[in-house]
Amino acid sequence: MKNCLLMLMSLIPLFSVAVNASEVEDRLNRAMASLDNLQAEFKQTLIDDNKKIVQQSKGRVSIQRPGKFLWIYEQPYEQQIIADGKELWVYDVDLDQATVKPMEAGLASAPIMVLMKQQKVETEFDVNEVGQHKYLYWIELTPKNRDMEYTRIYIGMENETIKALELRDSFGQSTQIVFENQRNNVIFKPDTFKFVPPDGVDVFGVGG
After folding, report:
1. pTM score, two decimals?
2. What are the DSSP calls for the chain, one per residue?
3. Each residue's pLDDT tens digit, 128-180
């Protein structure tokens, strides 16, 4: 995982290249459309403002846009984040606790939020090309809504497949995510994105 982190950190140059904005937006929108029925594994690293690793985790993700996903952390501890299109559940397996809230309220600060948006990215973000750097082609998103938790989002693509994300916040921290073993056009079972709290689990919050 450390090698993946170092690769990702070395990929993003410190400048953007001026190109035709519509071409960049079209390329990114095509890549986003490929996420409609996706399964993948991920490795996630949280970096503090001193560029030190705070936490590393790994797991798997399933996406059925619009509105449904599973984001399951398997290491270092098990946590499940489930969106069924209406409610967002967070289930901490070791604690036997689950929280639920309306999806719109719960999704705003989640790293996956940028992948779940089906409207064209330019409606909510200023889009700039960073360019091809080593392994991936990078695009920078700057939120037009200043209330958003992340101040910069970088998306790394191979051809038109999203392979990596970096989300930077106003405190100088960054969340870096690398996707592996991606499968597109997955046909999910009807109950894939349905969460029913197991017996004995404490549930907090109010759903949608």
Report:
1. 0.81
2. -HHHHHHHHHH--S------HHHHHHHHHHHHHTTTEEEEEEEEEEE-TTS-EEEEEEEEEEEETTTEEEEEEEESS-EEEEEESSEEEEEETTTTEEEEEEHHHHHTTSTTHHHH--S-GGGTEEEEEEEEETTEEEEEEEESSTTSSEEEEEEEEETTEEEEEEEEETTS-EEEEEEEEEEES----TTTT---PPTT-EEEE---
3. 888 888 789 999 988 887 767 788 999 999 988 999 999 998 888 999 999 99
Torsion sign, CA atoms 34, 39, 40, 42: positive
How far is it, in rounded angstroms, from Cα 176 to Cα 184?
A: 22
